[in-house]
């Protein structure tokens, strides 16, 4: 099972998406304000300079008349640091002075005292100001006109190509920011995806270890730099430690099996050799009981710990249940207990011997604890896509508050102390059901006879 | 019949040896795997009882060496390992039977006898049989009819298979574990004397009303189907 099914629903993806969005918003605002403010500042500066210039020339006109103005402009035009365009004409359209050979074409539309942006072709420029680059085809000029006494018209303009450059720089940086943003978004997505797939790898391995009990499996470690790999490395260390301990325990219990069986064999043999049949029989029975209990415990531990499902095959569960009923029918007949069995065709992937064992244990208990002339109801079939085997009896039953103790090893209800048995049967059933990824449910008084126990065993049809 | 016991625990080997000698069989004991293999390779034994955990050479290795040299001597593995997988591995490696410790001597004896008989029987012998007989009881495998002293006996499926198995191995001790494995074909731990109940049902049908019971209980071991009634009555 994957820990995170859809990577777009992972926390790392949501976080990276959120950060990307916030970053985009922030950068957008900053860029917006920078572009707006720099544009305005540059234009205002130029406007102010033109206005100051215009006012100066006006003052000169009042003080020194048109001659003063032409004189001043002539000097200005010849000044090497000059970067402005000037033109002055009289009523007849005669150019008096300036660095423009002709009046700018679209000047007619321009109202006096208003600023506007012109595109002045290079051919118009008679005397290119030295501070202005000479190889440009045309110039973008911010300018205005003035009229003195209704006779002379003056044009003052400033090149604003610098401003254009600033705008171009702004645009380029804008695109760069967009590109960087895309890069960040892409990397965030990749980080999200990478983290999710690594987590899924880890959780899949963990699931596999849980299901197969194969402790030799290790989490994948892909690199040495990311945090998840460091986590995987330390989890792998933990797995090695657990594997070591489990193997130790296993070999210890295998040794117990060997070490206890051999003395038991000797004990049995001593008894057989040294006593007569009469004395030996009860002693041998006790030894055998001890051995049965011991075998039962080992078998439960085996089923619980091994988790090996090598004996799992597709089996007809109904046939297995049939065989159990057939085997135990004589026991029920002896007590005149009726077994009402409804066994429907059912098949599932399971261990045939273990299913037989579990149904046999439940049925054996049911017969043991149901008094003479009682009833046992058995059902085998499907329920909600799962296999269900239910065995209800009209026996002495077990109090509902003790139902969760039934599957504990050596559980024996007060009322059953005198009955033969070692209290391992239902613990074994629970272990078998768990191996089949199923569940075990108990019910009191299932047949409405006043008492009795109902045991239901559910397990999936396939693994 | 000559039996080789490969077992490192002297108490166990002594116990087996004593039992086999009492049953007038000859036997030799090897206390480790290497020695055991050497003796087994001489080919003079009818059966080998092999312990799994041995010094020098593991029981499974001894078995593999034997089988790789095409020795067909029947081998019974004796082991403290009781897991089903261990049993399966043992039988797959070429063992003829598998018995877990501790065991009753009768169980070992019954299995040894059956094992030797099986290996001696040629395939034709077992295939031709259509009717099985034991004393005045007959069982027809084709018609699935059972008669005793010309009286027809009705048996149900499992009862028929139980009787068939007992009759195929008449005059031999059959243990409860052997019946569980062969007649019911489930590897399982009954926790109840369920086999005894089935035997008593079968007795009801074939022995009730007859002077001589054919299914005999062997104390501490299991059951035996009788064949030579007269001999037994005389003795």
Automatic annotation (TrEMBL), chain A:
Catalytic reaction annotation: ATP + protein L-histidine = ADP + protein N-phospho-L-histidine
SUPFAM superfamilies documented for this protein: ATPase domain of HSP90 chaperone/DNA topoisomerase II/histidine kinase (SSF55874), HAMP domain-like (SSF158472), Homodimeric domain of signal transducing histidine kinase (SSF47384)
Keyword Transmembrane helix in annotation: yes
Single GO MF descriptor: kinase activity
Listed SMART domains: HAMP, HATPase_c, HisKA
UniProt organism field: Alteromonas arenosi
Entries under PANTHER family matching the protein: HISTIDINE KINASE, SENSOR HISTIDINE KINASE YKOH
Main localization of the protein described in the UniProt heading: membrane
Identification of the protein by name: histidine kinase
TM ranges: 12-35, 173-196
E.C. numbers: 2.7.13.3
UniProt superkingdom: Bacteria
Residue span(s) of domain HAMP: 193-247
EC supergroup of this enzyme: transferase
Subcellular localization: Membrane
Domain named Histidine kinase: residues: 255-463
Keyword field: Kinase, Membrane, Phosphoprotein, Transferase, Transmembrane, Transmembrane helix, Two-component regulatory system
Automatic annotation (TrEMBL), chain B:
Residue ranges of DNA binding: 129-227
SMART domains, per the entry: REC, Trans_reg_C
Name the UniProt record assigns to this protein: Response regulator transcription factor
Start and end residues of each Response regulatory domain: 2-116
Keyword list, A-Z: DNA-binding, Phosphoprotein
Annotated positions of the 4-aspartylphosphate modification: 51
Domain OmpR/PhoB-type, residue spans: 129-227
Signal peptide: none
Organism name: Alteromonas arenosi
């Amino acid at each position: 099972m994957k820990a995170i099914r859809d990577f777009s629903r992972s926390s790392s993806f949501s976080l990276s998406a959120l950060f990307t969005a916030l970053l985009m918003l922030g950068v957008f605002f900053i860029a917006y304000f920078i572009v707006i403010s720099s544009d305005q500042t540059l234009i205002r500066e130029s406007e102010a300079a033109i206005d100051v210039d215009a006012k100066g020339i006006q003052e000169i006109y009042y003080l020194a008349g048109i001659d003063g103005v032409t004189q001043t402009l002539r000097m200005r035009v010849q000044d090497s640091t000059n970067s402005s365009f000037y033109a002055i004409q009289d009523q007849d359209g005669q150019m008096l002075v300036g660095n423009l050979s002709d009046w700018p074409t679209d000047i007619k539309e321009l109202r006096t005292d208003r600023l506007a942006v012109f595109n002045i072709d290079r051919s118009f420029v008679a005397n290119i100001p030295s501070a202005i680059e000479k190889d440009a085809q045309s110039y973008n000029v911010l300018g205005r006109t003035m009229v003195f006494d209704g006779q002379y018209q003056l044009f003052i303009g400033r090149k604003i190509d610098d401003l254009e450059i600033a705008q171009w720089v702004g645009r380029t940086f804008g695109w760069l920011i967009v590109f960087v943003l895309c890069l960040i978004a892409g990397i965030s997505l990749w980080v999200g995806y990478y983290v999710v797939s690594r987590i899924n790898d880890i959780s899949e391995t963990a699931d596999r270890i849980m299901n197969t009990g194969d402790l030799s499996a290790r989490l994948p470690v892909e690199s040495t730099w990311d945090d998840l790999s460091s986590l995987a490395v330390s989890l792998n260390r933990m797995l090695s430690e657990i594997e070591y301990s489990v193997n130790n325990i296993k070999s210890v219990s295998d040794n117990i099996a060997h070490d206890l069986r051999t003395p038991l064999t000797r004990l049995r043999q001593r008894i057989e050799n040294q006593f007569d049949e009469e004395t030996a029989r009860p002693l041998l029975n006790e030894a055998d009981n001890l051995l049965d209990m011991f075998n039962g415990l080992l078998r439960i531990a085996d089923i619980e710990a091994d988790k090996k499902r090598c004996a799992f095959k597709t089996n007809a569960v109904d046939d297995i249940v049939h065989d159990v009923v057939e085997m135990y029918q004589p026991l029920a007949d002896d007590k005149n207990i009726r077994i009402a069995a409804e066994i429907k065709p059912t098949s599932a992937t399971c261990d045939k011997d273990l299913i037989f064992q579990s149904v046999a244990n439940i049925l054996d208990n049911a017969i043991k604890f149901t008094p003479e002339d009682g009833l046992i109801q058995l059902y085998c079939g499907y329920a909600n896509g799962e296999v269900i085997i239910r065995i209800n009896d009209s026996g002495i039953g077990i109090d509902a508050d003790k139902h969760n103790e039934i599957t504990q090893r050596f559980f024996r209800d007060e009322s059953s102390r005198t009955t033969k048995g070692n209290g391992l049967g239902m613990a074994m059933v629970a272990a078998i059901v768990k191996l089949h990824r199923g569940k075990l449910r108990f019910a009191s008084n299932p047949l409405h006879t006043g008492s009795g126990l109902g045991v239901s065993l559910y397990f999936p049809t396939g693994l | 019949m000559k039996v080789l016991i490969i077992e490192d625990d002297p108490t166990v080997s002594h116990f087996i040896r004593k039992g086999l000698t009492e049953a007038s069989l000859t036997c030799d004991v090897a206390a480790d795997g290497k020695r055991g293999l050497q003796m087994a390779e001489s080919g003079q034994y009818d059966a080998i009882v092999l312990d799994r955990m041995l010094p020098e050479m593991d029981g499974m290795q001894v078995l593999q060496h034997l089988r790789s040299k095409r020795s067909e001597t029947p081998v019974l593995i004796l082991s403290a390992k009781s897991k089903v997988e261990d049993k399966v591995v043992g039988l797959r490696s070429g063992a003829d039977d598998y018995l877990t410790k501790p065991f009753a001597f009768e169980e070992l004896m019954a299995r040894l006898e059956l094992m030797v008989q099986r290996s001696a029987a040629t395939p034709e012998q077992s295939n031709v049989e259509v009717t099985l007989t034991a004393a005045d009881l007959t069982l027809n495998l084709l018609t699935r009819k059972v008669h005793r002293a010309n009286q027809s006996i009705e048996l149900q499926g499992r009862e028929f298979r139980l009787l068939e198995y007992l009759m195929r191995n008449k005059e031999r001790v059959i243990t409860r574990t052997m019946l569980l494995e062969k007649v019911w074909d489930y590897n399982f731990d009954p926790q109840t004397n369920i086999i005894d109940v089935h035997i008593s049902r079968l007795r009801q049908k074939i022995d009730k009303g007859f002077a001589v019971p054919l299914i005999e209980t062997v104390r501490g071991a299991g059951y035996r189907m009788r064949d030579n009634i007269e001999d037994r009555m005389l003795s």
